[in-house]
Amino acid sequence: QVQLTESGGGSVQAGGSLKLSCTASGNIYDIQIMTWFRQVPGKEREGVAGFNIFGDETHYADFVQDRFTISRDYDKMAVYLEIRSLRPDDTGVYYCAALNRYGRWDLASLYTYWGQGTQVTVSS
Prior knowledge:
The protein is mainly beta. Helix content is 0%, strand content 52%.
């Protein structure tokens, strides 16, 4: 089992920035891919950014437009998502997820482990 704990969400004005954190614990050696998803009102959960643990390959959704940066700290077994130039349509719940095998990074149904989510609210 793997436990994921997110933090760093909050309420910000448009144009601001946030840095979300996700810490993994438990059987972390099972993890192959770690990804940030988000669920905004009225839409399905969508992949934002992810990376392969082995191979160090990163992935970004097309809509990111260079506003999002995923990073990690292996010593802390943590992954971060920095979001810049926040917009009201970025409002939603952001989830950290881990996959214990290789697969399509942005397909939520493949993921085994999920954090509880952290709310991001952007006001205009």
